[in-house]
Amino acid sequence: MQIELDRVSLAYADKTRPLDDLTLTIPSGQFCAVLGRSGAGKSSLLRLLGGMVAPTGGAARIDGMALSPAMPRALRRRIGQVHQDGALVGEASVAENIVAGAAAAMPLWRALIGLYPAWTRERAVALHLELGLDPAFLAAPVARLSGGQQQRVGVARALMLEPALVLADEPVASVDPDTARQVLSVLAAHRTRLGATVVCALHQPELACAFADRIVVIDEGRIAFDGSPELYRRSHRVETT
Amino acid sequence: MSTATAFPRSWSLRRIAVLAVVLVLLAVSAVRVDVPRLFTQAGASRALAGMAAQMWPLQISDRQDVAEIPGFDPAHLPLFAYLQTTDETTRELDRDRLAPATVRHRKVWLVQPCGYVTQVASKLLETIEIAIWGTLIAVLLGLPLGLAGSASLVRSPTVRQAARAASAGLRAVPELLSALVLVTAFGFGPPAGILALGLHAAGFLGRFYADAIEDANQAPVRALQASGAGRLASFRFALWPQVRAPFVSSTFYILDRNVRMATVVGLVGAGGIGQELKGRIDMYEYAHVGTILVGILIVVLLLDHVAARLRRKKT
Asked: Which class for A125: exposed (0-12), middle (13-18), buried (19 or more C-beta within 10 A)?
């Protein structure tokens, strides 16, 4: 899915402007890492791309359709989102949380009585293992997992419907470097397999350089850098790990 | 020593004035509602003691005149039952001589040694059944009211306020009052009691359910809806796991409450043990009343025990 932002700004009622006159085109199939300090506007950009908020200025389109909280459900199903706070249900099991990612694609009666279609169950287990989570966790309540494990559950949920666009807001914020590489590899493999677009907010430049084909740095709601990892490395002296 | 630190003043004239006003109001009210009689009426305690004395011994057996049992078959008596024959002498008018005469009547009774206890037990069971059906109706009505009254699921404030108002309206009518009215519509017996309990409790559950949903973490709901899930599907995955425990515990509370209230609505004829109790009190049959009260006490204590165990299991 191709994303086009044309002079987009986002202003809140309290006069803060997390996004200010931002123009950005992300072509289909690109792995784009978004870097920036905390509060620079990374999360706001991802929330805008996910149709959680409407732009207050400019035009935001995804495959030519306007991005807004009112966008059709059929379009939403093609967008997988990893939320920064996880947005998981602590009381429900890991398996239930992952399978919830397919809620939009299963018959309501199956969801209501918990008789999930076989493909959703199989896919949930496969993603769980692919992200390096212990099989014993599947039946455990999410609240019992560590922060990093919960983040991986969030990633698995976002990938349930094989989305054409993955929006990940700091999916590796609280995992160790090895696990971070494993999670980002899963996202990269997903991109390669389905030709999906991935937009991923990160804090670690070295990881961004290792996995992304493009790096966008946001500062105070504007684009401060936009280029290839090589260019970023040269201008920012990133140590490769 | 000149600048000794003083303890902060811990009283105020205002507090004393408020206390005085409350005491005066209580004194005025005591005269209005005749509170002194609580302590001076010696007859009251005598009356209560007398009633209690008449409850002993408790009524255990049951005796029925065989002549009043339609289709009575002496060859097939109920379990443990036996027949008892009594002779009664009464003075009646002899029609032939037109003079008073002593007449002997022979009566045959069917005696069931535990007959009345069985009858009370069956009425208690009926009371519990009324409570269970009342709770079922309350859940069926309260669930849609609760879902419609929560901001997480219903965006229209009009619908939400209407649902909340409906819950408040149902709560506002006491069971006893609606039972009184419903008995005239449905006649004596359990149906009026079931509906009365169900309507009142639905008001409570509608409120409890709506509050539980609104207290839940809404982030997963927004996350699922953002990826195209419908409202019911996102309720199922994002909210239900969070509200299941509060839903179950408030439903058990309502069941517990309904068993107690089911005995009370019986007093106005809405079935169950209450109806039996009212009938016996009206006929001054205090031994029967005693048996009923002991039965109610046992059921309520048992229920308390069971409810406490269920709650402990949930947490």
From this structure: middle
Cβ–Cβ under 8 Å, residues B214 and B151: yes
Name the minimum distance, in Å, from the CA of A231 to any CA of chain B. 34
Q: Where in chain A is the domain with CATH 3.40.50.300?
A: 1-78+163-241
Taking the C-alpha atoms of residue B294 and residue B59, their distance in angstroms, rounded to an integer, is: 11
The pLDDT of residue A226 is 93
Show the tokens assigned to B254. Answer: 């309502």
Give the tokens for residue A162: 């094989």
Q: Which residues of A touch B217 (CB under 8 A)?
A: 89-90
**Residue A142: closest C-alpha in chain B:** B241
CB–CB contact A111 B241 (8 Å): no
> Can you tell me the distance from the alpha carbon of B73 to that of A105, in angstroms, rounded to the nearest whole number?
68
Does pLDDT of B2 surpass 70?
A: no
Question: Does B226 sit within 8 Å of A80, measured CB to CB?
Answer: no
pLDDT at A241: 47
The pLDDT value recorded for residue B1 is 54
Contacts of B244 in chain A (CB under 8 A): 91
Interface contact flag, B222 A90, Cβ < 8 Å? no
- Return d(Cα B128, Cα B168) in angstroms, integer: 26
Question: CB neighbours of B184 closer than 8 A, spacing ≥ 6?
Answer: none
Q: pLDDT for A49-86, tens place per residue?
A: 998 889 998 999 999 888 888 889 999 999 999 998 88
Q: Which residues of A touch B223 (CB under 8 A)?
A: 81, 83, 87
In CATH, the architecture of A1-78+163-241 is: 3-Layer(aba) Sandwich (3.40)
The reported pLDDT for the residue numbered B290 is 94
Q: Which residues of A touch B228 (CB under 8 A)?
A: 73-77, 79, 104
What pLDDT sits at residue B42?
79
Chain A interface mutation, best of B215, B222, B227, highest count of A Cβ atoms under 10 Å: B227
Pick from A157-161, A184-188, B95-99: least confident: B95-99
Amino acid present at A156? A
Residue B162 identity (one-letter amino acid): A
What is the average pLDDT across B88-94? 85
Give CA–CA dist B39/B216, Å, rounded: 51
What b/e string do you get for B80-91 counting C-beta neighbours within 10 Å, with b at 16 or more?
A: ebeeeeeeeeee
* B61 touches A at CB < 8 Å: no
Cα(B87)–Cα(B104) distance, integer angstroms:
7
Contact across the interface for A77 and B227, Cβ inside 8 Å:
yes
Output DSSP code: residue A239: P
pLDDT, tens digit, 9 for 90 and up, residues B183-192:
999 999 999 9
